[in-house]
Design brief:
Blueprint lengths: L6 E4 L5 E9 L2 E5 L2 E2 L5 E10 L2 E13 L2 E9 L7 E7 L2
Antiparallel strand pairs: 1-2, 2-3, 2-4, 5-6, 6-7, 7-8
């Protein structure tokens, strides 16, 4: 979990992010099945349509410790404020 607007779940084997939820540019975004590299890094992107506009959302990050992930959530669309946001996810 990170902040009030995000959730990150990792599979029991620690090799896959089974679910990453966040709010990007006012849209709810969900990524599923993001692979973690052997070094604990990951990235994924997708297009989200909201109110007739397309938003490109990218997420990336790395495992800092067994209980923490740090990364960036980036939104690209006309009128998006705060296009890149850093996050820290504390795993429990």
């Amino acid at each position: 979990m990170f902040g009030d607007d995000g959730r990150l779940l990792i599979a029991g084997d620690g090799r896959t992010i089974t679910r990453f939820e966040a709010i990007a540019c006012g849209a709810n975004v969900m990524f599923r099945g993001i692979a973690l590299s052997a070094a604990g890094r990951f990235s994924a992107s997708q297009n989200v349509t909201r109110a007739g506009r397309t938003i490109l959302v990218s997420v990336s990050g790395h495992v800092v410790s067994p209980g923490m992930i740090r990364g960036n959530l980036r939104s690209i669309a006309p009128g998006c404020r705060r296009a890149t946001r850093r996050y820290v996810a504390r795993l429990s």
